[in-house]
Amino acid sequence: MVSSSHALYSKLSPGTATKVDKHETDLKVEERKHKHPQHAAESCGLAAGAFALHEKHEAKKHPENRHTHKVREHVATAVAIGATSLALHEKHERKHCKDAMKKKHQKKG
Q1: Which of 17, 24, 82, 108 is the most buried (most CB within 10 A)?
Q2: Where in the chain are the domains?
């Protein structure tokens, strides 16, 4: 093990270990940290959009409950927009982490 606080060992594949800078490891962890919320937000956006379309169809199909279905449609649309915005934000955060890692590698090489 390395006693220095600036370097860590990272296993890239079984049986191989290389010295990796702690900042680079932190960037990889942060990139992975943004991946899951991005995928969850994308799924939520798709589901909310599908529900909004379903409610729009129901409003046409059942005119006596049209107001209720319209309200649900608008709420689902707002949720879809919010989830899509969150997914886009997380995508930009991941991209920022990747760019930081690329710059770090360019400085080394």
Answers
A1: 24
A2: 26-98
